[in-house]
Amino acid sequence: MMKKCGQALQPSKIMPIENKCAKIHNKIISLQKVMKKIEKKSVCNVAWRGLLNSAVKGMNEALRDLEKRLEHIELELKEFMVFAFVFLLSGALFLNGCASLKERGKQVWGSSIEHLEKERSQGRAQDFALGIDECFLKVEELIADTDAQVYLKDRDKRYMAVMNFKGYVDTTQVGIFFTGSGPARTKIEVASMSPRLVDDVSEMIFEGLKAYKSE
Fold first, then answer.
1. In this structure, how many other beta carbons lie within 10 angstroms of the beta carbon of residue 5?
2. CA of residue 199 relative to chain centroid, distance
3. What is the mean pLDDT of residues 202-211?
4. Whole-number pLDDT of residue 85
5. Is 70 helix (H, G, I), strand (E, B) or coil?
6. Which entry of 41, 68, 102, 108 is 20 to 30 Å from 34 by CA?
7. 83 has a pLDDT exceeding 70
8. What percentage of the chain exceeds 90 in pLDDT?
9. CA gyration radius for the chain?
10. Is 51 exposed, middle or buried (0-12, 13-18, 19+ CB in 10 A)?
11. Which distant-in-sequence residues (6+ apart) come within 8 Å of 46 by Cβ?
12. Quick one: fold of 113-212?
């Protein structure tokens, strides 16, 4: 039997998923055929029309829920792949001695912050009556009180990137951005590819800084 990485090759764990997907696909096709028959009967029959409306509503809700679950899984897989790539690249840089691991790690993670930047328009924001430096420090303190980790921060560019939040995949990331609009006024933006994480983190930060909320 062939071996890989010192272990015997195991049957694909994806195959059961493929089989389930095939069954779901066949089930959907079958339901579509039944609904087409009901639709024909419903043209001149109120009872059949009510049955059709109920079936369409139920199927729409089921497909919407399935789609959301699949999108969440897809998001987690993409974030894990980014983390794995960065981890391997950081190790390679360390072995090659190109620069200190810390500095190179920042450069690598810096390239990955782009996907958080793109989500800023979909994130949440709030103004606070604090200078940027003080605001930055207070947010760091709030993060430190959780299990999350600030894996990258830059005071000059006014952002920090955080991951390892409880209840989420370890690699699910959030970006926190600071924009000054005066000597004692700062806008905090929270962005992530996970809308649920945006809500949780922004609620935690905004609640922690509510005494400084700017009207």
1. 5
2. 11
3. 94
4. 65
5. helix
6. 68
7. no
8. 32
9. 25
10. middle
11. none
12. TATA-Binding Protein (3.30.310)
Q: How far apart are CA 197 and CA 154, in angstroms?
A: 21
Residues 6+ apart with CB under 8 A from 134: none
**Cα 96 vs. chain centroid, distance in angstroms?**
32
Asked if residue 127 lies in contact with residue 133, where contact means CB atoms within 8 angstroms, the answer is no
Q: Which amino acid is at 33?
A: K
Structure tokens at 70: 């699949």
Q: What is the pTM of this model?
A: 0.52
User: Is the dihedral angle over the CA atoms 11, 15, 20, 22 positive or is it negative?
Assistant: negative
User: What residue ranges in 20-123 does DSSP mark as E strands?
Assistant: none
Confidence of residue 105 (pLDDT cuts 50, 70, 90): very low
Q: Mean pLDDT in the chain? A: 79
Please name the residue that has the structure tokens 């190109």.
Answer: 98
Neighbours of 188 (CB within 10 A): 24
Angle at the Cα of 186 from the Cα atoms of 184 and 189, rounded to 5 degrees:
170
Sign, CA torsion 120/191/172/75:
negative
Torsion-angle region of residue 119: left (phi > 0), alpha (psi -120 to 50) or beta?
alpha
Q: How many CB atoms lie within 10 A of CB 186?
A: 26
Return the structure tokens found at 71: 């999108």
- Express each pLDDT in 135-149 by its tens digit: 999 999 999 999 899
CB 124 within 8 A of CB 167: no
Residue 143, token pair as written in the block: 């993060």
What's residue 104's pLDDT? Answer: 44
